[in-house]
Q: What sequence folds into this?
């Protein structure tokens, strides 16, 4: 009997390097620790996380490359819709 998973290799979890603008700590975060919001414009597209060192809520702009990296790494994404 052959397993459906035979031949598959173990995949390490994706981690993202980040820094806190408040306490200036540098750390790595898992995809579950980040949130990505994609808006209609670059000004409304950002990612956020809570600093594991000081507990500050951090929100940073996300350009196209950051959006690509975060979505490819499994970060939960919220698409913001216009009400117009």
A:
């Amino acid at each position: 009997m052959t397993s459906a998973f035979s031949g598959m290799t173990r995949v390490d979890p994706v981690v993202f390097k980040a820094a806190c603008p408040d306490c200036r700590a540098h750390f790595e975060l898992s995809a579950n620790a980040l949130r990505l919001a994609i808006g209609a414009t670059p000004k409304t597209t950002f990612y956020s996380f809570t600093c594991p060192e000081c507990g500050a809520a951090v929100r940073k702009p996300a350009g196209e490359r950051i959006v690509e990296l975060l979505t490819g790494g499994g970060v939960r994404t919220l698409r913001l819709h216009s009400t117009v």
Notes: The mean pLDDT is 89. DSSP finds one helix and six strands in the chain. The beta strands are 15-19, 26-30, 35-38, 46-50, 57-61, 76-79.
